[in-house]
User: What shape does this take?
Amino acid sequence: MTIDELLSRGVNEIIVESSLKEKLKLGKKLRVKYGIDPNKPDIHLGHAAPIRKLKAFQDLGHIAVFIIGDYTARIGDPSGKDKTRERVSKDDIKKNAEEFFAQAFKILDKEKTEIHLQSEWYEKFDLEKNIELMSKVSVTQVVEHETFKKRLEKKQPFYFHEVIYPLLQGYDSVAVRADIELGGADQKFNLLMGRQLQKAYNQKEQDILMMNYLIGLDGKEKMSKSLGNYIAINDTPEEMYGKIMSIPDNLIMHYYELCTDVTIEALELIKKELKEGKNPRDIKAELGKVIVETYYTAEEAEKASQEFDQVFSKHGKPSEIQTKKITKNKIALEDLLVDVKMASSKTQARRLIEQGSVEINFEKNTDPKEMIETKEGMIIKVGKRNFLKIKK
Assistant: This one.
């Protein structure tokens, strides 16, 4: 990848662009930082976009510094949130962090990646160091954070632990002596805090490269685990392919740019084909295979494509369906979905059932309270892609 493509593809803003270009032209080996909070165990394609950018820097010989925010996860990034996030337990954070490292190395070269947990430095912080850190930033400046301003205007509370989130993320740049930090466009305040704190601690200020964020499966909001509109890089090839086929047609180029390594020349050709009337479904099918192959193999991508055609184009059922053992002979439909983990809660189960997304043996069921007699081989279908076979 050329420097021009590195600094333009999927990029929203660079601070300071002239400084970053000069560093790259001088051929200096730069420390490029990206951090992620392990609030939940999945890395999704939205997270993968800046991690892939980190890999592009790594491929050019720079040092990829990957940080798991095991302390900031205890707060939860308040950016864009109109209420305080729920606290995540220390045990869940530890478990999720282990998952994150494993998933990140589907993209990054493990042998060439410098990895850190924030606890490496924050467990050594005593009250004196905390006071020193907080003395570097004014309260006036922190409440200028767009999220806090909006909450104040709406008379919604925000709590002091949320206020220190940008400081903790910013200090990470001091701890690892970052030359560049990568992040989403919605992270601007936090990323700039890194520059300010580096200056306060007599370090050279990092440059910032902000990525466009990936729109989720709903076609409207940023891809997010909390919104459930995401594609996890640990999804099975079939799940991943099916979800990609469900994205709105107007996001095809958006996903090609942020989720693949398809060349700029090839992107222009795809854009031209769409403009000239080529069936978007065919182009999306190729996109699905390209993305699945990124995280699995070409053979698994082809199999996922064929499976999708079998189920949806030919109105069949998957050749392989996951099985789940259940001992209850009769159970309310809403409870059944929760028991077999096809819904995370009764509320979600009721919503899926009432909106007509649930079938038992390929017959639609719309009553959450209906008592289902469970039988060997019974097939439950939720949505378009989620199948399960009951085992007794």
